[in-house]
Design goal:
2 domains, D-Maltodextrin-Binding Protein, domain 2, 4-stranded mixed sheet, alpha/beta, 6-stranded mixed sheet
Length: 473
């Protein structure tokens, strides 16, 4: 550009609402104490599944820095490299000041700051936080917030309506049994598989947990005792073997997080367990497929219950080595929540707010006005009832099943918290490995469950010895 952009114009163009930038109490009041020295804040972000979000976020962060005499540097990284990169920074004792994870990084609790102060301030400013966010950032055993959860992503089922119509299920599956029976029919009659992963990756982790919970079982109970080794888990593992044989293909054993999205967009999947990101990508790249994609709530199991294991929970941490910039990082998080309507819009409704009651500040918002909207829930409700990103001629009410997501979405440690042991079990893929061994014929369901339960108990014992979770009774 040949002409200079004023600082005021730059900040306005990034859509930062002035009302969202008020200073907080305590140490936060000192975040921008008068000084001529320009500070630097380094953020580590994963590369968003909806590219438009990064296109918005990076200028937003830079403009926030300009307003407060701070150099904000945003580094993006692939999801698969996020944990290993942060682990390396912890060992080195240097790196980024604020790191955003997609799943609860509870196993990093010893290496990060307690963020109780900024979480409590957020509650005062913005009201109640959604339970899945609270349970994904707070350790009730240590009474510490190891992270700050500003948002989350709803995980419905994404299905191809035309395919399910041909086998007599026009509204898609509602139970895991539907997925097995009718998904099997679609594969046999139409040659299109279902898209449930069985590999060491994020979505396979989530699908496995959702299946366990639907069978009334899981890794731990509410008292954080390992309960995986039981008959219901064995039944769920046997179900997954049947699903693989009737509705999946061997490629699911080598999937990465983007694989089920790519399969759906390519027209090669009848159903996937994921967010709306694949749908948004299809709208841009393959409109014909996008118009055929619809959504279902969490699938129900034999007992009639269904839970979605949220696969994207935006939990930000501040490492102990970055304590000198903690004031800036905390203020950045609070201001992001205050401007979260922009995050929802610029993620094309992929991001949902952790604080639905947060007020929408006046000023430039970067999207068409929503009549009568006063809170984040107001814009969320308006956009999910009438999708502003629907294609011409496409139904605008497809996202309605997602409005009830708070009632069927939960954290990875359900029915207990996402404690450090759960975090390690998640990051070492104990659950998808348990399912995969049986589906591949390497072990019986009973043997695989017993092995996985033993692995879980060992991990729980390690963290209990460190005083970060309860000791087994």
């Amino acid at each position: 550009m040949k002409h200079r952009i004023s600082r005021r114009k730059f900040i306005k163009s990034a859509g930062i609402g002035v009302a969202g930038l008020a200073l907080g109490p305590g140490i936060l009041r000192n975040a921008f104490a008068a000084t001529s020295k320009r500070r630097t804040l380094r953020l580590l972000q994963w590369s968003h599944f909806v590219p438009k979000y990064d296109t918005w976020f990076d200028p937003y962060a830079k403009a926030w820095g300009e307003k407060h005499n701070v150099n904000v540097i945003v580094d993006h990284i692939s999801l698969s490299d996020l944990r290993s990169t942060f682990a390396s920074e912890v060992v080195a004792g240097k790196g980024h000041d604020l790191i955003e994870f997609l799943n609860p990084p509870s196993d990093f609790e010893p290496s990060v700051l307690d963020l109780t102060d900024v979480n409590q301030e957020a509650l005062k400013r913005f009201g109640k936080q959604v339970p899945v966010a609270y349970r994904s950032s707070y350790n009730p055993d240590t009474k510490k917030y190891y992270g700050f959860c500003h948002g989350w992503t709803i995980d419905p089922g994404d299905y191809r309506k035309s395919l399910w119509e041909k086998v007599g299920k026009p509204d898609g599956p509602r139970t895991w049994e539907d997925l097995l029976v009718y998904g099997g029919k679609i594969k046999k009659q139409l040659g299109v598989q279902a898209g449930i992963g069985l590999s060491q990756e994020l979505d396979s982790n989530m699908a496995g947990r959702a299946l366990l919970w639907s069978y009334g079982t899981g890794i731990q109970d509410e008292q954080e005792r390992v309960v995986l080794d039981n008959k219901r888990t064995i039944e769920a593992v046997k179900y997954m073997k049947n699903l693989y044989e009737q509705a999946l293909t061997p490629e699911v054993f080598g999937w990465v997080p983007a694989s089920n999205n790519q399969l759906l967009i390519a027209g090669r999947a009848s159903y996937i367990l994921n967010s709306i990101s694949a749908y948004r990508s299809a709208q841009h790249d393959v409109p014909k497929i996008a118009k055929d994609i619809y959504f279902t709530p969490a699938l129900k199991g034999p007992g009639g219950t269904g839970w979605a294991s949220e696969h994207v929970i935006y939990v930000s941490v501040i490492p102990k080595f970055a304590a000198k910039n903690a004031d800036l990082a905390k203020q950045f998080l609070l201001d992001l929540v205050a401007n979260y309507d922009q995050a929802i819009w610029n993620s094309e409704l992929y991001n949902s707010p952790s604080f639905f009651n947060a007020p929408i500040p006046n000023g430039h918002r970067g999207y068409p006005a929503v009549k009568g909207a006063k809170t984040m829930r107001d814009v969320f409700h308006a956009w999910f009832n009438k999708d502003p990103f629907a294609l011409p001629g496409e139904a605008t009410n497809k996202l309605l099943p997602l409005e009830s997501a708070e009632s069927w979405s939960t954290n990875v440690g359900h029915p207990g918290p996402a404690n450090p042991a759960i975090g390690e079990i998640f990051s070492t893929f104990v659950i998808p490995n348990m399912f995969a061994r049986v589906a591949q014929g390497q072990q019986s369901a009973e043997a695989s469950v017993k092995q996985a339960a033993a692995e879980c108990r060992k991990i729980f014992e390690k963290w209990a010895a460190q005083g970060l979770i309860k000791k087994a009774a």
